[in-house]
Amino acid sequence: MNTLIVKAKKLTKVYKLLAENIAAVNNVDLEVSPGEFVSIMGPSGSGKTTLLDMIGCLDSITSGQLEILGNDVSRAKESNLVKIRRGNIGFIFQDFSLIPSLTALENIQLTLYFAGIKQETQKSISLLEKVGLGHRINHLPKQLSGGEKQRVAIARALAAEPKFLLADEPTGHLDTENSQEVFDVFKQLNQEKGLTIIVATHDTELGSQAKRVIYLQDGKIISE
Amino acid sequence: MNIISIAYKNLKRKRIRSILTIGGVAVAVAVLVSLLGFDRGYRQSLTSNIDKMGYQLLVTAKGCPYEAATMMLKGGGGLRYMDANIYEKISSDTRIDKITPQLVATEYDPNRGDGQGGFALYMGITDSYLTLKPWTKFKSGKWFSSDTADEAIFGYEAAEFEQRLVGDKIFIPNINKIMTVVGIFERTGTQDDGTIFLPLKATQAIFSLPDKLTGIGIKLKNLGDIADFEESLYNVPSIQVVSMSQVRGTILNLVSSAKVLANSIAVIAIFIAVIGVVNTILMSVFERTREIGVMKAIGASQLDIFKLIWTETILVCTFGGVLGSILAFLGSSVVEKIIKGILPYAPSGQLVLINPGLLLAAFVGAIILGVVSGIYPAWRASSMRPVEAIRTGE
Q1: CATH of the domain at A89
Q2: Mean pLDDT, 10 residues at a time, over chain B (394 residues)?
Q3: ipTM for the whole complex
Q4: Does A190 map to a domain?
Q5: Chain B partners of A86 at a C-beta cutoff of 8 Å?
Q6: With an 8 Å Cβ cutoff, is A95 touching chain B?
Q7: Concatenated DSSP letters for A175-206?
Q8: What is the pTM of this model?
């Protein structure tokens, strides 16, 4: 039970830009335990997204070591990474990233389909009801407001009952009221279910509502 | 939710593009089905036409075998005559089961076809003609009263064309002869349908061709004797023997060059359809790069993405295959008319033969087309790295 969600040692990601090597994430040591609510803050270009991509097993790492849920993913191949992502990590994106051709309900069922979980319609509907969209289940993303879309995205991220949530600027496209609602949902999930949540944001007011706040600058953690 | 419904919904997103691509596949499939249908239909019609001549060998005056072949099937110009005594000579051969003499004559009638003018085909026959074609039945009327009577029997279509009934008088232009219609045959599906039959002796007299014949139809007791029999007639001067299988081969040779051309068009059509499908699916994959990345983030494996894009391609081709088969089936009569207009010789009967087997083959073929054209786009989509896919769209 005490397996760390994230265990990073000297985690580094270097991009080659023209002839220059740019370290988007530079020697980061980070541990996240189950039940934490962590916000990663910092200006744009500070490496928040790159860090989240690596933690989310979406991107390879250049050097250092990274363990996700006890699995060493430092050198893992895509076919192994997908096994860790699937059912373990819930992703929430800035632009919601719902599949436009599928309804709110189907977007949630799609996650279950990929995760190989039996697609219980009732469970998907109750997930939508929990985020206050019980009346919107058959609407396509384009028929939903920004706040509604993000709530569908949250429901989708939760569908496969992941071990932790990764949210990259989840409020970037939302107004203050909707942004606060999203964070309220995060807080509630964290407090009531003990779900581990890692959020990247540059909104200091929202970010500071997390239990643990990490400041990132030029790819390095400057304070905690 | 299953992969087919997701793929179907993706195709519906760009409705017009999907419909156009499906249309491309449909046209290619329709062309292919029509051509294959034509190949079968033509062969079958020709074989049945030749079988329905009732004889396996035709003895004609010496001349070009192609000419003999066309003449026999089509009647018409360039007729050569031989002496009737050849008939007497040949008919005593014991290998012969049935034999019938015939004299074909044509006459230009300026009033034929509502004043457009055209050749009427007359054939002088004896009652042995019907023994070779036992399936020929009278629709109305009866056989000639004598071998010299000024009487005529119409083939089914000839009677329809000229609106003739038993008892009508017909006029043979230029020769100024009046004949009485005594019978009309039922449809046989052969060239006989368009022919006007006269008694042999009367024909020889009317067209001033005493003791002349254009052909002798022969059916042997034993099919295996054909080569021997042909050989035995080889030394008779001024005649040649044409076997029906030879005629069939000659005509099929004539059409085969046209078929090669048509088949290459079909191959090109399929090739273009494949390129169109690959292009469309690839375009939609690139447009959905970010979406594919998101799918990977939420748990889709490479195989899931491959299957999804592959299914989309196979769906496009399957729809195209079904639509193309329907098009070919509904359009076969139109294609048939066009082909009949173009071909130098078209046997009567259905030329474009589209049967369930062919449609099933087209359907399976379309699916295979989808399987093949889907591989590259599906591979491209599945091998996208999730982070690059997601960040590309931002």
Answers
A1: 3.40.50.300
A2: 88 92 93 87 81 81 63 56 86 89 84 72 89 88 92 91 89 86 89 89 90 89 83 81 80 78 86 93 93 91 94 95 92 83 72 87 92 95 87 65
A3: 0.91
A4: yes
A5: 299, 301
A6: yes
A7: -HHHHHHHHHHHHHHHHHH--EEEEEES-HHH
A8: 0.76
